[in-house]
Recover the amino acids of this structure.
């Protein structure tokens, strides 16, 4: 097992090395420049249009439904566990790099979703298929189909091995066990040195059962569930996060100072050589960007698969709505988690998170900041995490199914077999360690992001032209009814 962990860590270092980080950030920067900073110029318009009904276009779900489906996949354990893991391993500065990557990533999310609608296909039975695989194949030409195939393969891997199943159900069962079984008693069985309680076993089984009941219904059922759960769970968590921020408003300046100093290795510079300072800065950047893309999926190429199904005629229209996913996910929700952890563990006499891991970091932070015995906070976080992670599992099943459909030329029998495999992966997810789970997710994320970002840079000129033409044609919201 130690050898397996070492292999995973080495792979993670390679795929999430400086070249990948530079590629992701460069993609967002290039698209920001080519679209003249549209994430700043049109963010308000995007929010105003989110609930408006557009002129009827071809598609399977509403524009808002497509956004909720994408948010169901992005708002997950990354917002609670991922932020905690990034800060615990990369320091408070990781939060700054999450923000930095997110602001650039809003432009990336806009472009990838807009192009996905532009290049989507309507199949013989009337359903819509689109995503980076078609953007690459049609946008770059047939000679680049191999890159589209690579993306689709990595998409299937991410769904069944990483971000879609194992990380999410592992987060759910850990939260349930921490909240309902704090002494870690009631052991059901052990695997090596790891013991698993009945709380873990039963909650894992119930999640797998619920996933099976929903995904059999396909996109429309997933979309309906997402439209109901996503807004409700986001409001609950933001309310909890705002309570932390408002109750500790006087500590915010110190918290931001700690974050910025850590981001650039300033604290390390007081007692370390230049090489050490750079390593601290690079570590914070690596963890922040990696966990940031895990959380908001900008540049990953997943959200465009949901965006392609929206009932819109204008690709830019859906790109505007879809880019809100990155803002809501990272700038709002992840910030709530990050500030609570920094305030609780890194300012004043704080010396870090100690031996705490995963959801226990966030739970401990909220308990410290809000006070009380911690049981009510743990329960609320457990509820939020369950819904966050459950909807992510549903969203990623849809994403990976569409990648498989592309790879198999529409052989739906294989897709049905994949659903069974997906449910099995959810079932066994609770019994893998946290470090293995997140490392596998990081690796598969990077492997998806690389071909997607390459295509977005190559097609940045098309993105700029379509954006300019749309806003010249629709300078206001008259496109909506």
């Amino acid at each position: 097992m130690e050898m397996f962990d070492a292999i995973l860590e080495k792979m993670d270092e390679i795929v999430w090395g400086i070249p990948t980080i530079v590629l992701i950030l460069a993609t967002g920067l290039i698209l920001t420049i080519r679209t003249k900073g549209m994430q700043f110029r049109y963010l308000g318009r995007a929010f105003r249009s989110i609930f408006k009904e557009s002129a009827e276009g071809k598609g399977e779900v509403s524009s808002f439904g497509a956004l909720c489906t994408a948010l169901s996949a992005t708002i997950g354990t990354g917002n609670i566990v991922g932020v905690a893991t990034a800060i615990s391993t990369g320091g408070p500065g990781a939060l700054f790099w999450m923000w930095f990557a997110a602001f650039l990533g809003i432009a990336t999310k806009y472009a990838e979703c807009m192009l996905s609608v532009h290049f989507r296909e309507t199949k013989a039975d009337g359903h819509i298929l689109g995503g980076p695989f078609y953007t690459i194949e049609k946008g770059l030409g047939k000679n680049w189909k191999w890159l589209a195939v690579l993306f689709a393969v990595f998409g299937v891997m991410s769904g069944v091995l990483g971000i879609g199943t194992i990380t999410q159900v592992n987060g759910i069962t850990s939260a349930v066990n921490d909240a309902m079984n704090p002494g870690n008693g009631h052991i059901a069985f052990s695997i090596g040195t790891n013991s698993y309680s009945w709380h873990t076993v039963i909650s894992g089984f119930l999640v797998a059962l619920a996933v099976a009941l929903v995904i059999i219904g396909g996109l429309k059922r997933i979309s309906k569930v997402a439209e109901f759960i996503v807004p409700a769970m986001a409001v609950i968590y933001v309310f909890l996060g705002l309570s932390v921020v408002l109750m500790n408003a006087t500590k915010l300046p110190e918290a931001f100072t700690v974050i910025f100093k850590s981001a650039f290795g300033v604290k390390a510079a007081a007692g370390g050589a230049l090489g050490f300072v750079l390593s601290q800065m690079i570590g914070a950047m690596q963890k922040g960007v990696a966990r940031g893309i895990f959380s908001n999926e900008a540049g990953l190429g997943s959200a465009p698969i949901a965006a392609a199904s929206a009932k819109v005629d204008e690709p830019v229209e859906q790109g505007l709505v879809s880019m809100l996913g990155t803002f809501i996910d990272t700038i709002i929700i992840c910030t709530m988690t990050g500030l609570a952890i920094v305030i609780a563990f890194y300012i004043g006499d704080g010396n870090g998170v100690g031996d705490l891991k995963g959801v226990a970091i966030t739970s401990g932070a909220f308990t410290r900041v809000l006070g009380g015995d911690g049981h009510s906070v743990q329960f609320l976080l457990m509820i939020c995490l369950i819904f966050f992670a459950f909807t992510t599992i549903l969203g990623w099943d849809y994403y990976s199914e569409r990648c498989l459909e592309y790879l198999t030329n529409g052989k739906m029998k294989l897709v049905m077999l994949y659903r069974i495999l997906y449910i099995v992966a959810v079932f066994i997810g609770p019994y893998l360690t946290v470090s293995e789970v997140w490392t596998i997710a990081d690796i598969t994320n990077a492997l998806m992001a690389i071909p997607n970002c390459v295509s977005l840079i190559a097609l940045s000129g098309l993105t700029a032209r379509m954006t300019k033409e749309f806003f010249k044609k629709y300078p206001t919201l008259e496109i909506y009814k």
